Amino acid sequence: MAEQNQQQDQNQQPVFQIQRVYLKDMSVEQPNSPAIFLEQEGPNIEVSVDVGAEALAQTIFESTVTITVTAKIKDKVAFLVEGKQAGIFEIANIPPEQMDPLLGIGCPNIVYPYLRANIADMITRAGFPPVHLAEINFEVFYQQRLQALAEQQGQQQGGSGLVMPDGSSATRQ
């Protein structure tokens, strides 16, 4: 009986394990080479970030981080690099309210350093000085996405985006 209870307790323990981290997609474009290499001016760098997650099986999830780096000199694109790094995670016995933050914050924090290194390597191999991407606070990124989603839902429902104490949406008059 004690063994059975101990086994049930082990079956209910939270599980969070990295199964694999892999480069899912990588591309580089240099539409104005080789002429762009003759430019003396330094490039203007734009970076965009996206995070995604999906269930692959009952306890197996894929988390992805996509980065697009665009470098322009004057109005010409020097290079465009897009990379998508993914991780496969086993996640079980985690409370439902913690799953979304885990997939939106925890998993991207694990995957991002690999993508950052791959992007820097790709840019260097393309013949440009490396671009060292800054750390990303995925918690702030996650909160911004939640806020944007709440605002979008508020606009669709005609609400103000405010939630009343009883849980209903406040409406504009």
Automatic annotation (TrEMBL):
<dbReference type="GO" id="GO:0051262">
    <property type="term" value="P:protein tetramerization"/>
</dbReference>
<comment type="similarity">
    <text>Belongs to the SecB family.</text>
</comment>
<dbReference type="GO" id="GO:0005737">
    <property type="term" value="C:cytoplasm"/>
</dbReference>
<dbReference type="InterPro" id="IPR003708">
    <property type="entry name" value="SecB"/>
</dbReference>
<dbReference type="GO" id="GO:0006457">
    <property type="term" value="P:protein folding"/>
</dbReference>
<keyword id="KW-0811">Translocation</keyword>
<keyword id="KW-0143">Chaperone</keyword>
<keyword id="KW-0963">Cytoplasm</keyword>
<keyword id="KW-0653">Protein transport</keyword>
<keyword id="KW-0813">Transport</keyword>
<comment type="function">
    <text>One of the proteins required for the normal export of preproteins out of the cell cytoplasm. It is a molecular chaperone that binds to a subset of precursor proteins, maintaining them in a translocation-competent state. It also specifically binds to its receptor SecA.</text>
</comment>
<protein>
    <recommendedName>
        <fullName>Protein-export protein SecB</fullName>
    </recommendedName>
</protein>
<dbReference type="GO" id="GO:0015031">
    <property type="term" value="P:protein transport"/>
</dbReference>
<feature type="region of interest" description="Disordered">
    <location>
        <begin position="153"/>
        <end position="173"/>
    </location>
</feature>
<dbReference type="Pfam" id="PF02556">
    <property type="entry name" value="SecB"/>
</dbReference>
<comment type="subunit">
    <text>Homotetramer, a dimer of dimers. One homotetramer interacts with 1 SecA dimer.</text>
</comment>
<dbReference type="InterPro" id="IPR035958">
    <property type="entry name" value="SecB-like_sf"/>
</dbReference>
<dbReference type="GO" id="GO:0051082">
    <property type="term" value="F:unfolded protein binding"/>
</dbReference>
